[in-house]
Amino acid sequence: MGFIKVLLPCILSISFFTFAHAATFDITNRCSYTVWAAASPGGGRRLNSSQSWQINVSSGTVGRIWGRTNCSFDGSGRGQCETGDCNGLLECQASSRPPNTLAEFALNQLNNLDLFDISLVDGFNIPIEFSPTTDVCRGVKCTGRINEECPDELRAPGGCNNPCTVFGTNEYCCTDGSGTCPPTEYSRFFRERCPNAYISPQDGQTSTFTCPASTNYRVVFCP
Fold this sequence. Notes:
The chain is α+β, with helices and mostly antiparallel strands.
């Protein structure tokens, strides 16, 4: 995760008491293959190519949207996905299993701004666009050839892992609290292909975007 990991403990309690509708998210699959969209909060939905799904999210909510691939579910909505699986459920109720590309958001925060990003802190599985539906602010895309060019040591079925997931050391996870995290060959690999994405926990100043509160958004798989 990106900034969500930092904000979640402080903000999650707010969302329980703030029920006013804040934003609509239009989630569209433009991939040539089926994507099982997931949202927390929101659940999950199978999207064949060109299909869309719309969710409404309350003010103050911190959440994420992602796509799952190569899934199989039974009639009760239980099964598994090759990437992005969330405890074997079609209707996601928890975080996903890496690798997966995350569209993260925190609605109506300080100065009445929405915060959002595309995070590769959990790796990459599907190209994504995360943008406002109007031109009041800018969006972000991550469409580089990451799966195709993924270093062998980061490869996973259907995706490309973040090096922190594979190696678990501070060199790649940047979790020692020092405030410094020099670039590595792996961070440069992701940065060259998705320059505006959240690559490591140090990226908050450069990879978090803002829009006025009550903005509506679109999340597009394979834009």
